[in-house]
Specification:
This protein is mainly alpha-helical and 91 residues long. The protein contains 5 helices and no strands.
């Protein structure tokens, strides 16, 4: 779960427009990283998945990037579940 929480925090840090929210999400991600026993390579792999989700094109009846939705979808994705599970088992 720590790796998934890191992914969500990292995603929110990337999309935040105001500095206070960006800083809080970034520091939250840092705290998850510090409390992890995972190697940095694992975080790099998850970071690439964050980038993939943020690059997706979402649309709706109201014009928006829907970046928060992308982060939530990432958190609940089978892709992240598989990757996080694989990384945790590997260490």
């Amino acid at each position: 779960m720590l790796m998934k929480n890191w992914a969500l925090s990292t995603c929110f840090a990337r999309i935040a427009e105001d500095q206070a929210t960006k800083a809080d999400a970034g520091l939250t991600a840092s705290a998850y990283l510090e409390n992890s026993q995972q190697d940095l390579e694992g975080f790099d792999k998850i970071d690439k998945l964050v980038e993939k989700y943020l690059a997706k094109k979402y649309g709706g009846s109201v014009a928006s990037n829907y970046n928060t939705m992308k982060c939530v979808d990432l958190f609940h994705s089978k892709e992240l579940d598989r990757l996080a599970g694989k990384l945790v088992r590997r260490r």
